[in-house]
From TrEMBL:
Organism name: Microterricola pindariensis
Annotated region described as Disordered, given as residue ranges: 53-78
Protein name: non-specific serine/threonine protein kinase
Enzyme Commission identifier(s): 2.7.11.1
One GO MF term attached to the UniProt entry: protein serine/threonine kinase activity
Matches recorded under SMART domains: RIO (SM00090)
Keyword Transport assigned: no
Length: 236
């Protein structure tokens, strides 16, 4: 990772757009001795949560139940859905995802390395080759035996999340990347504390259903109820 104070960030373009955030490609490089030629460099992903004019954080309350907010003014603004409150929500998502990535990375889960967070922008490791992002699980095709290693990795990710007492909360083949055969989980701002969130169990079960439905459609039999029972057993 490039950590020099002399490093310069250059925006290379957009990777993907979403309802609540856009992801941009950033090159962080340290100029060589002549001050012009790039020396050490790395490609990063900058996830920028949308501001109050274009974003809709209407789903946030479902995921943040059980979490506290220290600033009561901010809490009231978020509850009212004011313009300021929506701005607070954007930054809140970015910081929540940074903390989720940091915690899970330390625990050894396959997530992008979190570099820094500033306001509503989260900078993290780019998963891909060169400037080409790793494909999503949703694009993968193959026989049941070919897909099984990916299925096993996804279930292991869910198992490790369960051991930490959390669920992804919005897991699907669209936020699981496959990079050289390795599954990496992304989009984690809504990470759910299963026990403290009143809807935690329901969201954990929905994650199981989403995953098993996709693999079953590809010809690999998967029992969502069995996976759910296994994950619940990991928690207690």
């Amino acid at each position: 990772m490039v950590t020099s104070a002399a490093a310069i960030d250059t925006e290379l373009g957009i990777v993907k757009t979403g309802k609540e955030a856009d992801v941009f490609l950033i090159e962080r490089a340290v100029p060589d001795s002549d001050g012009r030629t790039p020396g050490e460099r790395v490609i990063l992903a900058a996830k920028r949560y949308r501001g109050p004019e274009t974003s809709d954080f209407h789903r946030s309350s479902r995921y943040t139940e059980g979490r506290g907010m220290r600033n009561t003014r901010d809490s009231r603004a978020v509850a009212r859905g004011s313009s300021y409150g929506r701005s607070v929500s954007a930054s809140r998502w970015a910081y929540a995802e940074f903390e989720a990535l940091r915690t899970l990375y330390v625990r050894g889960l396959p997530v992008p390395y979190p570099v820094q967070v500033n306001g509503s922008e989260l900078l993290m490791e780019f998963i891909g080759d060169g400037q080409i992002a790793a494909p999503r699980l949703a694009t993968q095709r193959g026989t049941a035996s070919e897909l099984y290693p990916l299925y096993a990795q996804v279930v292991e990710i869910m198992r490790q999340l369960a051991r930490a007492g959390v669920a992804h909360g919005d897991l699907s083949p669209y936020n699981l990347l496959v990079h050289h055969g390795r599954v990496v989980v992304i989009d984690l701002p809504q990470l759910v504390e299963v026990v403290s969130n009143p809807g935690g169990m329901d969201m954990l079960y929905r994650d199981c259903v989403n995953v098993c439905t996709w693999f079953t459609r590809q010809g690999l039999g998967c029992d969502a109820d069995a996976v759910f029972a296994e994950l619940v057993a990991e928690m207690f």
